[in-house]
Amino acid sequence: MRIVYLALAIWGAIHPMVYFLRWFRENGFDLSGMVEAWHANAASSGLVWDLTIAAIALTLWIIAETAARRQWRNLIAIPATFCIGVSCGLPLYLFLRSGSQDGPIR
Q1: How many domains does the chain have?
Q2: pLDDT in tens, 70-89
Q3: Is residue 19 part of a domain?
Q4: Would you say residue 106 lies in a domain?
């Protein structure tokens, strides 16, 4: 499964970035315009909030498990989540976590 997590993290970094880069090419590097586009209608606003809540929950999980396991390198999944997206941060964290020799927390 470790390789699957890594593949999903890479895919989750590249695939969404293709769309973001296309948007920046068409509209310039306008972050406020991008955020405005994310809230263009109720469906896209709902998706933004869904991903925001998921990113916060993932961050709290990463912090809690990192503190318990003392696997500080796993914290890299937090900036990956907020700078790239949950589609990269979650599988990246699962990849890093699966490499731990500690096993599950009991």
Answers
A1: 1
A2: 999 999 999 999 999 999 99
A3: yes
A4: no
